[in-house]
Amino acid sequence: MKNYLERSLTFTEYLALLDRLLAVGETTGPNQSKAMVGYGNLNRRRMERLSKTVELDDSVRSAAKRLSRKLIWLIITEGWCGDAAQNIPVIEKIAAESDNIETRYLLRDENPELIDAYLTDGKRSIPKLIAIDATTLEVIGTWGARPEAAQDLFRDMKKRGIDKPLILENMQRWYNADIGKSVQSEFEKLLKEWDRSASSAANGIT
Length: 206
Known about the structure:
This protein is an alpha+beta fold. The chain contains nine helices and four strands, in the order H-H-H-H-E-H-E-H-E-E-H-H-H. Strand 3 and strand 4 (139-144) form a beta hairpin. It starts with a helix and ends with a helix.
């Protein structure tokens, strides 16, 4: 894990990379089709809007502020990914509430062996967050690629054979209605769980 962290990007560096690529009509990843670049532009604007408009609930703020364990949240993503655009701004806001959380970013398609160790339903779904103890570099948990309710909706639509454009439209409708609440609820629980695991280890409890 150390090697991945050494070549990872800060959130600021990740956004700067996206902006540099989009400025010359490109996006991250090997697929540089007009459609993928279009998704890259759309999702960069979406991230910017959500970063300004999403508000955290007091409960998740408190959970983040109470975190006593130093964590690195390594996030595997790509600039064209709609789910990443919807979830990363919320995750960043949560992380910003704690001095004990550092976020780092890696591109999925540049690190296939890493994402293959953290598949979702056998797929390289992103964003995928790997929670790492900052002291030991032990992986203590993961999240992603979507909030559970969104993942259930996605699975159901795939099972019913719904065409991809309609799946994307329905997922966008779900995110618009949810406005980041599900991510916050899930991370409130995860913050407490990941902090308790540190306390248990310190006390020799397994």
